[in-house]
Amino acid sequence: MDLLSLRYFQAVARHQHISRAAEELRVAQPSVSRTIIRLEAELGVPLFDRQGRRIRLNEHGAAFLRRVERALAELDDARREMTDTAGDGPGRVAVAAETLFQLARVLAAFRVHRPGVKVRLFQAPVDSMRRHLRSAEVDFALASQPLTGSELCSLELVREEVLLAVPPGHPLAGRESVTVAELAGEEFVSTRPGHWQRALLERLFAREGLTPRVVCEGDEAGATPELIGAGLGIGLIPAIARRARGEHGPTAWLRLDAPDCHRTLTLVWRQDAYLSPAARDFRRLAMEQLMLEES
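-> structure tokens emitted (295 positions)
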């Protein structure tokens, strides 16, 4: 069992697909297939279930992956630590976030403070963030949903109210607040399942024994206010969007009379991860900029 075999296995497990893993690794597909077969023979158990040309990680593979990711993350941390010790280059910082909007202010300050540092961003739902952290692909995750675990550390940065946005002329447009029960027949514009807006919407409705009618869903949360303004439906929007667009934008804003109708933005990192000086500066600036934005 060598390091290259573990890298190949990690890529195949991530994609659940030999060809896509080979493309990521920039090697020939047969080489990846032979490596996985050899690894399974060495371990004495199959790591994937195979149906024709399709493969899927099985319980043995999932257990092995957790340990492989931990081992590779430690090696990657060691490499970065030695690079920093040697003073070889300005370094890099990688961040995963559900939405990149609130990172703009942090990145602007970081560029001034740490010019030359390479910054890599991943836009990802919360489930993918956990994988990015575990495999050391990112130093931090900026999550709008709970991302917890004994191996993770977290810091709450922003807690903001979430409002209901409705298009001009909507019967609710003149109201200051509304209950969830009053929205039972409304059509919603939201994100796909897995994103924080959708999770909050479904949680609020489930408390009332209801299911929201989602007529438009996607991954581009920033487009939601425009779609609401165009009359496609109503939707949940964080208060920061109201401040950014002004009080009299193409939508009307109401408070939702429901407990916990808010978003908590949390910075998360691996407990035992090596954080470079650049990464520690990014964490400090994220605290300063986002907490300042809240106030």
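Residues 90-157+264-294 form a domain with the D-Maltodextrin-Binding Protein; domain 2 fold (CATH 3.40.190.10).
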